[in-house]
Amino acid sequence: MLGRIASLGRIASILGRATSMNTVLKQFFTRTVSIMTIALLANPFTLVVYAADKDSVELLLTEHILAKKIWDVKGKQFVDKKQLTEKIHASNYVLLGETHDNPMHHQYQAWVIDTLSTRRPNAAVAFEMISNIQGKAIEEQKISSSGALISLLNQYEAGWKYEQHYKPVFDSVIKAGYSLHPANFDRNTLFDIVKKGEEHAPQAIKALLNKNAMNKTYKAVMTKEIEEAHCGMANAKMISAMMLGQRVRDAVMSLALVNNRKHQTAILIAGSGHVRNDRGVPVYLQIEDKSASILSIGFIEVNQDADTVETYAAYWKREQLPFDYVWFTARVDRPDPCEEMRRHMQKKQAINS
């Protein structure tokens, strides 16, 4: 399933329940369901079923030749942690792109925060996994432990597995004394924007989107990627909605960082599709904060038949990987979602025939 973009959720759930475009779009913003979840959140190697139903995940290819190696994209060479550390300390914005259910990605994110805290006493950490509504609740309380934070976040319907996936990152943020911030809209707000159109976004978001308007080439590339990511089953209306949802979220994440530049460093925890430097959050940051130093790190899962950096760049349909650094990791064992979709569709056809 190489060359596909990761989607998170259970495919059968949406196929069995979605009866209208509105239903599809609402499920699109619920993290625990559906193939229609926005398609550009993680890496582009596989369309995946979210492995979060298990209490633990199995890592594959831990001995892969690239696993644990760090690639300097511009320098075209492998570097060690010490070299990466210097780049982290020198950056105003540090963007950490993950595959959401991979525990190695969260361990490495925690390492980045721990490393930064040795020299930077003040930093802000914004999370794609925390909505604006959850953020307001955090502001009203003094959070002293990851357990208290997770308990608070779980009071809201978000769909993220905070305890299972993000506890190591939360632990590091709280230990460092860094502030936590939302970097996402709640799903109802996002659904409303996508349903009504870009012109119904908040003024600050709309203004930023206008500064980074899509051209025909950008739109064509995004359309093809979303089609492939959804096994050819996303129609034009759905693709348009997903495209707008992706852009809105990139803009929201960018403003979450810019608004916290009073700190020495602003860090983003998000899916790797959001931190790609050719069209994700870095592009918006360059518009809003032209003089800032931006560092984008993509944590990328290895594949069995891919043992060269060039192969991974081809998966992303680029001559070079769209990050400043790529940290290769073992991959999570997941079912093949397209195969599950085919079986489900066959079952539905049999019932209806």
List keywords for this structure.
353 residues, alpha/beta, Rossmann fold, eight-stranded mixed β-sheet, two-stranded antiparallel ribbon, 14 helices, 10 strands, 44% helix, 14% strand, globular, disordered N terminus
Protein model, in words:
The chain has a single domain (60-331), classed as Rossmann fold, CATH 3.40.50.11550. Residues 1-21 and 27-50 have low confidence and may be disordered. An eight-stranded mixed sheet has the order 3-2-9-8-4-7-5-6, with helices on both faces. The protein has a two-stranded antiparallel ribbon with strand order 1-10. The protein is built from 14 helices and ten strands. By secondary structure, the chain is α/β, with parallel strands linked by helices. Helix 2 (21-28) crosses helix 8 (187-196), helix 4 (103-117) packs parallel to helix 7 and helix 11 crosses helix 12 (281-288). 44% of the residues lie in helices and 14% in strands. A hairpin with a 4-residue loop joins strand 2 and strand 3.
